[in-house]
Inverse folding.
């Protein structure tokens, strides 16, 4: 094969989305852990697969990677089932669990074995280890004696080893310090900007909120909301707090404004901050906080789902409707 | 552009054709490497090697001259391989589950039968190497002892092949037990306990005539003793069917359906 000019990616025959799940369903031990999960990921995007622990994120990702057989539905990567990829490591970088490494194997050796398996130039191993911030001493350490953060970096290095077009990462921010999360964000952003597709899961919204540009929210095995991050966050009202909350609530009600208490203790109002501010001023209520509820929308959904408050949607639905319902 | 992102772009290119399926030979090489590149794996193989050499030294130094022949040496020198290599076969499979490396392994090679085939091939190659080591150790021991016994160096060619077969099948029995149970401790215990139990139960139950067609000790021992009769071959065959082929098939079926977590 003729050498290609870097950084152009080798074109794989792709029809449709880079990642596509259609009606994925999985029953384990008589319980439906994933039900009718449908979403797709396009090139150039970072999709956050978000949900509380036990929501079915990992099971979905395992089905996507051919490690678990769906009871219904199908999942494809680059237009085919994962198992039909001749050398998947060269197309799809997978990190499903950073802890799933042999404790008695050295970090560098784990990477060398993976490189050998997929026929990757072993010369990539050392620069990649340096890139993920594992120095020589760390790479020589047996994995059993590495911290979760180090294993996470090792796992990311392994996922990048085959120069893939698609990354599937389960809880990649887990165990990383804030500096590590920033590093991960830059790395993945660049990966996506060069046409790569990233699907990453997290149970902590705040951890990945700035990292993703698309969001799929899953809870109780079902997709509850999906769409662009900004689209889901836009126009979600105003967060307001007052020393005297009852007075504020009364003032808002008098002005015909709908307000709802957030888990954080603020009131979420379906109006512009200016109008809320005027209402408070007219009633003589002292505000201690007033601002746009940017991000609160997603957080609201998330909190609602975590506490199991989101109603299981019946029949045909638009994810965005669920989101709106969960907020109001 | 961040430094990490820049560095990512500057990495060496991964290599030729990204859609070339890794060959079985490549996967076998990887599995051989995985047998030895962990702490437990390394010391297990080292113990086999050291045990083999130690057995040869002890035989040369202490045994009766009548036993210091190449064949006599071989019968003793083979013991570390016969006992420990099947354990390496077990671990080759069960470590993937116990250490959860199956997740990464099958994400790189999703056709699970190919992984199991590569493991069986790796186990076989390691066994042939172990048999060669046994032969070399026995020869060195014989040369050192120089027993001065008639026919000290006589070894039928068939027996060399049988030695290799004994080592290979023994390790594959381990692979099979590992594949059926997918857990190190139960598989190793079963590997030693089940054949013994089989022998005891069959003796007590008075079904020895039937049971010895599947008795690991008596069925396979002739492989090490010299040229075998047709009946001995048949018994070795049925024994291997029960203790090697059946577990391998059941294990392959189980692995192909297992949820990898």
């Amino acid at each position: 094969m003729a050498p290609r000019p870097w950084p152009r990616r080798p074109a794989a025959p792709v029809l449709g989305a880079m990642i596509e799940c259609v009606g994925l369903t999985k029953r384990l031990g008589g319980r439906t852990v994933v039900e009718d999960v449908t979403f797709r990921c396009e090139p150039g995007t970072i999709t956050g697969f978000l949900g509380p622990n036990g929501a079915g994120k990992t099971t979905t990702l395992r089905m996507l990677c051919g490690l678990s057989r769906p009871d219904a539905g199908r999942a494809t990567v680059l237009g085919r089932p994962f198992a039909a990829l001749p050398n998947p490591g060269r197309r799809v970088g997978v990190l499903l669990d950073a802890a799933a490494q042999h404790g008695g194997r050295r970090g560098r050796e784990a990477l060398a074995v993976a490189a050998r398996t997929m026929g990757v130039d072993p010369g990539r191993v050392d620069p990649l280890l340096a890139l993920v911030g594992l120095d020589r001493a760390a790479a020589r350490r047996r994995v059993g004696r590495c911290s979760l953060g180090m294993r996470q970096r090792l796992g990311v290095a392994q996922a990048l080893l085959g120069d893939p077009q698609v990354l599937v990462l389960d809880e990649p921010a887990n165990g990383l310090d804030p500096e590590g999360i920033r590093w991960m964000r830059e790395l993945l952003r660049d990966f996506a900007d060069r046409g790569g597709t990233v699907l990453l899961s997290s149970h902590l919204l705040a951890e990945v909120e700035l990292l993703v540009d698309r969001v799929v929210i899953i809870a109780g095995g079902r997709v509850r909301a999906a769409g662009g991050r900004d689209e889901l966050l836009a126009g979600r009202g105003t967060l307001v707090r007052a020393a005297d909350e009852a007075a504020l609530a009364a003032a808002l009600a008098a002005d015909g404004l709908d307000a709802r208490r957030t888990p954080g203790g603020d009131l979420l109002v379906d109006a512009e901050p200016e109008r809320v501010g005027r209402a408070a001023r007219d009633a003589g209520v002292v505000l201690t906080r007033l601002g746009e509820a940017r991000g609160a929308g997603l957080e609201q959904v998330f909190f609602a789902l975590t506490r199991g408050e989101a109603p299981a949607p019946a029949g045909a639905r638009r994810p965005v409707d669920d989101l709106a319902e969960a907020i109001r | 552009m961040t430094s990490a992102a820049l560095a990512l772009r500057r990495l060496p290119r991964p290599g030729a054709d990204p859609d070339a399926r890794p060959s079985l030979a490549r996967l076998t090489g990887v599995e051989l490497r995985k047998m030895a590149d962990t702490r437990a794996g390394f010391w297990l193989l080292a113990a086999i090697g050291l045990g083999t050499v130690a057995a040869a030294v002890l035989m040369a130094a202490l045994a009766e001259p009548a036993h210091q022949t190449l064949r006599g040496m071989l019968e003793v020198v083979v013991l570390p391989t016969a006992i420990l290599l099947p354990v390496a076969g077990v671990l080759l499979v069960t470590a993937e589950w116990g250490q959860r490396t199956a997740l990464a392994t099958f994400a790189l090679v999703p056709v699970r039968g190919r992984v199991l085939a590569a493991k069986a091939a790796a186990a076989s190659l390691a066994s042939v190497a172990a048999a060669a080591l046994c032969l070399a150790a026995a020869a060195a021991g014989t040369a050192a002892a120089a027993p001065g016994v008639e026919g000290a160096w006589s070894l039928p060619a068939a027996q060399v092949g049988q030695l290799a077969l004994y080592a290979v099948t023994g390790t594959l029995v381990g692979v099979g037990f590992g594949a059926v149970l997918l857990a190190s401790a139960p598989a190793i215990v079963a590997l030693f306990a089940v054949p013994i139990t089989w022998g005891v139960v069959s003796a007590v139950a008075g079904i020895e005539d039937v049971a010895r067609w599947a008795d690991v000790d008596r069925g396979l021992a002739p492989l090490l003793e010299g040229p075998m009769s047709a009946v001995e071959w048949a018994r070795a065959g049925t024994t291997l069917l029960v203790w090697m082929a059946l577990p391998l098939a059941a294990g392959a079926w189980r692995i192909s359906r297992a949820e990898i977590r």
In short: Chain B has 13 helices and no strands. Chain B touches chain A through 49 residues (CB under 8 Å).
